[in-house]
Amino acid sequence: MSVKVATIVQTIEKIAPKKLAYDWDNVGLLVGNPKGETDKILVSLDVNEQVVDEAIELRAGMIISHHPLIFKPIKNILWDNPMGAVLKKLIQNEISVYAAHTNLDLCRGGVNQALFEKLGLGHGEILKVESIEKLFKFVVFVPMSHVEQVKLSMGNAGAGWIGNYSHCSFGTTGIGSFKPLEGSSPYVGRTGEIEEVEEMRLETIVPEKLLNKVLKAVIKAHPYEEVAYDLYPLANSGEEYGLGLIGIYTNPLSKNEFLKMLKECLQAPVLKIAGSLPEKIEKVGVCGGSGGTIINNAAIKGAQVFVTGDVSYHQAQEAENLGVCVIDAGHGITERLIVPIFASNLDNELQNQKANVEVIVSKVNNEPWTYI
Ligand SMILES: [Zn+2]
Prior knowledge:
Layout: E1 3-4, H1 5-15, E2 28-31, E3 37-38, E4 40-44, H2 49-58, E5 62-65, H3 82-92, E6 96-99, H4 102-106, H5 111-118, E7 122-132, E8 135-143, H6 147-156, E9 170-178, E10 195-207, H7 211-221, E11 229-233, E12 240-254, H8 255-266, E13 272-274, E14 280-290, H9 295-300, E15 305-309, H10 313-322, E16 325-328, H11 331-335, H12 338-352, E17 358-361
Parallel strand pairs: 4-5, 4-17, 5-6, 14-15, 15-16
Antiparallel strand pairs: 1-3, 2-6, 7-12, 8-10, 8-11, 9-10, 12-14, 13-16
Helix pairs in contact: 1-12, 6-7
The structure holds zinc ion (ZN).
């Protein structure tokens, strides 16, 4: 049994919504056929010829990588250059490639959260908020006989989730009236006559991403041919998405404890440190990959230490001036933690859909740096 590539894409984007990606990025299905099918997916940080060979050997029909294989516009596909050779091999072997890049950086449970949790930090707050989910008030009018059924369906679809509470709603009763017209097939009442029914005005809150799901569930559970509902945009803020996280150690660590833990957790052969490390480390910011551009956000939020990768000379100087100790542990080293986590999340989602597909973590080491 295999699964459609399009189904896998939908599932990936449930975990890492594509709309979270930056405009400059190139995420999504980069190579392949959405209508194609596969029963094995290989997950890796990058796509290079070794990863493609691994996929061929495993008979995996799809590779999901964090870094996009195609990033800058391609002007040619020449078989004797690395990009051309990889594309040729992918197409010859009918292997699809999907990139979950900045959408996987910015989503919940993504790259930054993996790093944050690995370092044992708690009470996370986003360093640079990029978007806030819109919330809607959803109101539906339900005859008394179907209130419980509709309430349950909309709650199960994700409406009315507030903090640690689910299925929140409010109901007021009143009289609904309507006149079924020619061609209608009313649940109650007669064509051409005004009907009055005792109904409940059920109201709840729904995040934008769940609007369609909730609406479908309500329409399915509601007995009327035409369901009367209203949607109001709210000024309340929904979930935040953004780059980097900052958190605290409830039991602050000494300088040495922190460095030892950091090297062990990340299996980092070397750490580059700009600025001075405080004696007691309590508040730490993280950004997997290349986080040099948000050093200022870490400073504003009061980070004593900021752990990231790919920090430039001038960014390191900026950190020193801002009084933040920046630790550059390496781009891939601060990101690669996400690969098995993402693979496992994807596997769980696909299993929930009863999709018979195997998700495999790549064994290829893409780290280009050697430290001597
Ligand atoms: Zn990266």
